[in-house]
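User: Teach me something about this protein's shape.
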Amino acid sequence: MYNFLAWIMSDVGYSESPAEERVTIPESLHQQVLSVGQDLLHITTNDRVKTPKHIVLPMTVKNLTGCSQLITILNRFGHGISYPQSTRDIKLQWLRSH
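Assistant: First, the predicted structure itself:
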């Protein structure tokens, strides 16, 4: 899926490289490909699979801003887990570390 997304999101041409090899693209595009790939995985599994993007983004926003409304907006647009999920995950991580 990575190569497919890289080919359609860039001007890198299709190549006959082995399936095990990733297409070489700039770092900025690499991050975008990973982001879109995680969105696709999250959507196609009906939110059952929580990708790093969908967990880390709301937790980071919560730590930086403390704004639960912003986390709710991100969740409604499909960019992260809900506020109750993020607070529960933070509590679980704290309990595991202590």
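Now, about its shape. DSSP finds five helices and no strands in the chain. The chain has two domains: 1-49, 50-98. If you'd like, I can walk through any region in more detail.
User: That's plenty for now, thanks!
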